[in-house]
Amino acid sequence: MTGSDGVERSVPAAVDLDAREVAVNLRGETVSFAVLSRSAHWAPSAAAGQGAAEATHAPFPAVVTEIAVEPGDAVAVGDTVVVIEAMKMLHPLVARGPGVVRSLHVAVGESVETNQILVRFETERPEGEAPEGEPT
To answer: Which domains does the chain have, with CATH numbers?
Structure first.
């Protein structure tokens, strides 16, 4: 780190690669922060699970390289459902909540656009609760 006086200094830091977190100790005070994934950085609303647990969206333009689920498959939070490739990097897209795959909207090799729905899920709702945008 370079201080305001232009002198470079070392500062203690802890990096947790699995949790994508960094903690830096500066002048006796620790500052912690999360490092966003590339998906979350470039398309925060899509990468954050836009559409809640009912669908997986493309966070950015890409090509579908793998579909890990089929209609009727049960998924849990964090299960990989689709893998896309962008800028020569593979990006696994995961289920945002528990559910059952209702339908696939893409095929391997297909180009997708930002926020395009890739997979739809059936999710359990409390009795009497309607899906978003539908009357009860």
So the answer is: 1-35 (no CATH), 48-122 (2.40.50.100)
